[in-house]
Sequence to fold (96 residues):
Amino acid sequence: MAKTYSKTRAPDELIQLNINLQNKAIQLMEAMNNLSKRIDRLVNLFEEASKHLSEVEDDTRVKELATKLEELLEQNKNLAHGLLLLEKYVRQKQRI
Fold:
């Protein structure tokens, strides 16, 4: 009788675990989407700051800041690209 109980219970547990896994995957995708949006806003902020700095008179300190901002902008673009690839990977794994 114990074997019958576990055989009937196992599919129900697998279904519940699968549902929980799908919910976590959805939460992860939503979090990644929100993070991607925030990084996008941050990139826009850096772009605006870089444009503004180019309009300011040329001195070495401003040039150094502009260079650092450009490096940060490139890093943020790489992060955003990586997040998009990660999201694509998660979506593919979820379909399997």
